[in-house]
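In response to the reviewer comment on reproducibility (Comment 2.3), we provide here a single inverse folding case reported in full, input and output, so that an independent group could reproduce the run without further information from us. The structure tokens appear first.
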């Protein structure tokens, strides 16, 4: 996974190219977007640990 940061150096998301996922954590909520080649992306929302 590699981290994407904004101009202020704050973490925006983490990307995992081999698994085709993007993980976003904001205000205690975690969103994982999984890109599936044959269909629409899968979005999973949960509370961050």
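Designed residues, in position order:
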């Amino acid at each position: 996974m590699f981290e994407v940061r904004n101009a202020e150096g704050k973490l925006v998301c983490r990307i995992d190219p081999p698994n085709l996922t993007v993980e976003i954590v904001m205000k205690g909520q975690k969103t994982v977007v999984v890109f599936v080649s044959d269909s629409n992306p899968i979005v999973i929302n949960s509370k961050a640990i």
